[in-house]
Amino acid sequence: MTQPQAASPVPDSDPALVTAGQTESGFPAPRGPLICDPADIFDAVAVRQKIRAEAENVPPTELRTAAVKILREANKSGRAAIAEAFAAAPFSARELTRSYTFLTDGLVTTAMFVASTLLHPLATPTRGERIAVIAVGGYGRGEMAPASDVDLLFLTPYKITAWAESVIESMLYILWDLRLKVGHSSRTIKDCLRLGGEDYTIRTAMLENRFLAGHAPLAEELDARLKAELFSRDTREFVEAKLAERDARHLKQGQRYMVEPNVKEGKGGLRDLQSLFWIAKYLYQVQDAEDLVPLGLFHPEEMELFAKAANFLWAVRAHLHLATGRASEQLTFDMQVEVAARMGYEDKAGRRGVEIFMQEYFRHATRVGDLTRIFLSKLEESHQKSEPLLERIFRRRRRVKPGYRVVRNRLDVANPEEFLADKVNLLRLFEEALRTGMLIHPDAMRLVTANLHLIDDEMRNDKEARRIFLDLLLKHGNPERALRRMNELGVLSAFLPEFEPIVAMMQFNMYHSYTVDEHTIQVIANFAAIERGELEEELPLSSEVLRKGLNRKVLMVAMLLHDIGKGRAQDHSILGAQIARKVAPRLGLKPSECETVEWLVRYHLLMSDMAQKRDIADPRTVRDFAKAVQTVKRLDLLLLLTVCDIRGVGPDTWNNWKAALLRALYGQTRAALEGGMEALNREHRGAAAKKALRKALPDWSKADLKKETARHYPPYWHGLHVTAHVDFAEMLREFVSRGSPDEVMIRLYPDEDRDATRATFVMEDHPGIFARIAGALALVGANVVDARSYTTKDGYVTDAFWIQDADGHPFDPSRLHRMKQMIEKTLKGEVIAGEALKSRDKIKKRERAFKVPTHITFDNEGSEIYTIIEVDTRDRPGLLYDLARALASANVYVANAVIATYGEQVVDAFYVKDMFGLKYHTASKQRMLEKKLREAISEGAKRADT
After folding, report:
1. What is the DSSP pairing of strand 182-188 with strand 150-156?
2. Is the pLDDT of residue 5 over 50?
3. Which of 326-340, 550-564, 865-879 is predicted most confidently?
4. For the chain, how long is the longest CA-to-CA vector?
5. Rounded distance between C-alpha atoms, residue 943 and residue 946, angstroms
6. Cα 901 to Cα 603, 604, 609, distances in angstroms
7. What's the mean pLDDT in 293-307?
8. Does residue 944 have a pLDDT over 70?
9. Which of 163, 207, 178 minimizes the C-alpha distance to 68?
């Protein structure tokens, strides 16, 4: 607590303004440099002169209103001066926080002056009619963002008097009229001690109190009694309470690697730094963070990291507040772009400025985590923090190898000089930590980070170093633990310099939930979980493939390097393969293994793209994929890499739909590689599908079965599962028997194996039916993930759409009635989807910052009978409808639509023919179609953005 300093002599009986650290004007002096001239922020003398002049000219009933008007203008001009100066110096965070504190002090103390001296003057106050106005919490600490709360404690000696109540009420009304967010409490010293003893949050707020105005001796008495009676007790309990608050906060806000972090409350955020200081202040009575260095809690270079992280995070928070005009703490995608621009980050070398900014953010958040770890270990050594629960329960002495020692159940280095004499020990430390299962002691971490320069080319090419590194990946069963700690300490980037550019690199999109380095570690963690048998039920195919055996070394190195080329202008798969060509031999892999690693890195997206962007029921898709893979060994490796890669994107990215696609592609490809491409023959697959239908309909007559199998063209038989064939057979028989040409039959099938609902439609053939159904589905909020359209030889349409709700779950069958009504209305022309969608869902504000260029390609080789039109663009409501309608207007027959969504990006692949059943080979027709599709995308985007 800052001690109240002696002010100019004022009689105890005078309740007028008395402030801490006064200037000659009787106004609080700032504790450090401000961001601009103090007079431009708040000129106390001028403001009070204006108010005194108004007091002489207006009746007492209007004085408060007059004072508020003067203060409002002063607040407005002061905030404008601070904001202007901050825009010119966007990293001057400490000066900014002091400046907002200085401004707030001026407003609060002037409000006190008006309330106690002008509105409620008291000529002869008693001892009970004294007030001390004290700032608490962040305001008390003197750190304020543009929209921070103003937390005040009104301290009185005894029970509050009528005069004091009037002063406090008038003062609060003035501050509320200024639109300040005031948190306040009126207490006696006895109240403060009692409530602080019961509630750690209240105790923490009072820990950082600062006297502002009123009766200084009362504040001095509170300070003395808090130190003697409250802050000197329950030290361990206070620490545990603060750490419990931190853990609960992290659980609620998410980890520091989440792509929309909370600057204040998230892991590695400002609150973590503040928690360290609260604990240090409570235990050691420090006044500033710098005081932690002489106490031995931080080294000077660590304190420098503390200060830089705090300054950066405060700058980000201030820009957030200024950009939104409110107390925003979440760095949403749209705000990331805004804040990056305000802080001067620009696009360069294939990366957006916002990505460079967020990489810097995550690096600071990581450093905050390191500092927290170091600080807490020091508390453990001083017994101010309990040991982790499991370590208390299962206390046991673990044997460590020579050169190491155990300090409070953590692995430490016995002799730093001997340890550093062998560079390879910088890797052996992590091997020993994995072998023993112990955490590394912060002193050992400090030793490593201070000597990263020892990891040079000589060490990188050392046989023993290679062996240790590969063993960390392959031998101990939990490689992610070693990799994450090595990454946080800088060892991973030192040993693999090629890894350094992707450390804390954010990918500015809605698809990836983690930074690139954390995603890489998540991928490896997924593989380790499969190896441990933890995902047997969820990933049966991957588990089976792994049990049969594959080259774990090749796969693990490929996983480590698969995204190492990101962040450059060149395709990251191509650049990554070039990097792998250099790194893999350096890690000691054989030439054949290096070749496989390079191939896996180059084509690590191939299986995912084939499964999600192409029709895997088309024999050409599987044939082309099999030719690219060439061997079953590569297929097995690629399957594991693909599964772990998708699962490592985010907690909700993997689902049964993707699992089913990958299983089907793997099964067909393996059959083709082992049994020859003849297994993919259309006639063979069609005959098998008809046989399966006959078996599934045992009650049907031979005549009905013959009629049903004869009415469909060949693509129908290899494009659907037998359950869909059964649905269509039953629906067609019923539909024909009804003889109602205007009717549409709909059936929903909950396809739980694919996390989707299959919606099947039967009706008479009409032009543009595919587009109309897509529009109707968009209107009822269904997201289409796959669609197939088949015309029968006798003039009916059988369409199958796989749909999900907005959260990626199966569509609710209870909404069938509304869906059916909407489709019927759109087919009859009663509802025009394009018009109806204008008032439907819009792109959310936080998602509008994403830039997704549109790419349209025509592929005549990927299918034997169709042209594949691939549209890669910005996803939005109604997009599939807009594209399908554009194709229908050009008389394009859409047989299949495969939809792959990657956050805000979507890839729609249409399998099409022209009206004569031919592919689109001519460049002029392709240009015409591309123009129509781009126009549809542009018009729909305007609708979604308005």
Report:
1. parallel
2. no
3. 550-564
4. 112
5. 6
6. 20, 18, 11
7. 85
8. no
9. 178
By the 10 Å C-beta count (0-12 exposed, 13-18 middle, 19+ buried), 754 is classed as buried
Please state, in angstroms and as integers, the Cα–Cα distance from residue 516 to each residue in 15, 66, 473, 497, 643, following that order.
60, 57, 18, 15, 17
**How would residue 842 be classed by pLDDT, with cut points 50, 70 and 90?**
low
Residue 262's DSSP bridge partners are 330
Instruction: Taking residues 683-692, report their average pLDDT.
Output: 80
Sign for the CA dihedral angle at 331, 336, 341, 346 comes to positive
From edge to edge, which strands make up the β-sheet containing 132-135?
182-188, 150-156, 132-135, 210-214
Q: What is the DSSP track for 555-579?
A: HHHHHHHTTTTTTSSS-HHHHHHHH
Residue 242's pLDDT band, with cuts at 50, 70 and 90, is: confident
Backbone CA torsion sign across 667, 901, 634, 645: negative
Q: CA-to-CA distance for 43 and 262, rounded, in angstroms?
A: 35
3-state SS, 657-718, equals HHHHHHHHHHHHHHHHHHHCHHHHCHHHHHHHHHHHHHHHCCCCCHHHHHHHHHCCCHHHHH
- Each residue's pLDDT tens digit, 877-908: 888 988 998 999 999 988 888 888 888 888 99
How many other CB atoms are found less than 10 A from the CB of residue 6? 10
Cα separation, 139 vs 834, in Å, equals 53
Q: Which of 18-27, 199-208, 482-491 bottoms out in mean pLDDT, i.e. has the lowest?
A: 18-27
Half-sphere exposure of 945 (CA within 13 A, CB side): 12
**896: CB partners within 8 A, 6+ apart:** 615, 719, 787, 788, 789, 866, 909, 910, 911
How far is Cα 699 from Cα 183, in angstroms, rounded to an integer? Answer: 76
Asked whether the predicted pLDDT for residue 537 surpasses 80, the reply is yes
Strand pairing class (439-440; 410-413): parallel
**Structure token pair of residue 580:** 């792998």
In angstroms, the CA 775 to CA 769 distance is 10
Cβ-contact 297, 382 below 8 angstroms: no
- Laid out side by side, the sheet with 783-791 consists of 745-751, 756-764, 796-804, 783-791, 893-902, 905-913, 867-874, 855-859
Q: Phi then psi for 496, rounded to 5 degrees?
A: -120, 85
- Torsion, Cα 505 508 510 512, to 10 degrees, reads -20
> How many angstroms separate the CA atoms of 735 and 761, rounded?
11
Q: Which of 36-40, 129-133, 243-247, 637-641 is predicted with the least confidence, judged by mean pLDDT?
A: 243-247
In angstroms, the CA 428 to CA 471 distance is 10
Q: Among 77-81, 427-431, 515-519, which is the least confidently predicted range? A: 515-519
Q: Does domain 38-233 have CATH number 3.30.460.10?
A: yes
Q: How far apart are CA 711 and CA 599, in angstroms?
A: 45
Do 38-233 and 394-495 come out as alike in CATH topology? no
Class of domain 394-495 as given by CATH: mainly alpha
CA dist 841 to 38, 837, 844, 881, 902, Å?
A: 49, 7, 9, 14, 19
**CA 151, chain centre distance (Å):** 31
Check pLDDT > 90 for residue 567: no
Least confident interval from 148-157, 239-248, 726-735, 910-919:
239-248
Where do the structural domains in the chain lie, given as residue ranges? 38-233, 236-381, 394-495, 506-680, 723-945
Which phi and psi (to 5°) does residue 3 adopt?
Answer: -65, 135
Tell me: the pLDDT tens digits for 400-431?
899 999 988 889 999 999 999 999 999 999 99
Radius of gyration of the chain (CA): 35
Which tokens in the block code for residue 197? Answer: 């003893």
- Class of domain 236-381 (CATH, top level): mainly alpha
